Structure prediction request, 198 residues.
Amino acid sequence: MPKLGMEPIRRQQLIQATMTAIDEVGLADTTVAVIARKAGVSTGIISHYFGGKDGLLEATMRRILGDLGESVRQRQAILEQDTARGHLRAIVEGNFDRSQVSQSVMKTWLAFWATSMHKPSLQRLQHVNDRRLHSNICYQFRRHLDHEQARSAASGLAALIDGLWLRGALAPEGINITRAVTLGHEYVEEQLANTTAP
Prediction:
């Protein structure tokens, strides 16, 4: 019988082991047995908590997405003024937070994106994440721009964030966080130039 309170600890161990395994051997060779070995548990524990490898990958991505949301919220919480510019800068910075650019997290993101094209549950999660990012960005741009301009600006910033992140993840030298954030901020400034808050 498992000890009371062990489930959250076991889940976290398995999520961390999943990211480590993907980092070391890639998703195709990350088997339930490999994950269980890295976590120091039996394979039955993975089936019990997650139903298998796909369920564990989904839980891992939910954790990473939770970390992403928290990194943005922390930046927004310390804004001196409630401005669209400040919130948009927080979104850019949060997407390049250390929690999103470690080698194991970046490889897990890449594995998730590739797998989501073939797994409906992961595809739904990716779709929700995309919609949330676009919606949050669009909401802030709407404070200065009309509906169509805000949608266009939001699509551009979301694509810029994803593109900079992807290029950095695939670059042999890794991601240049400072440069990526600077380019994101410059885009925000260009979109909000010559506008005033309603």
Notes: The first helix runs from residue 6 to 25. The mean pLDDT is 93. The chain has ten helices and no strands.
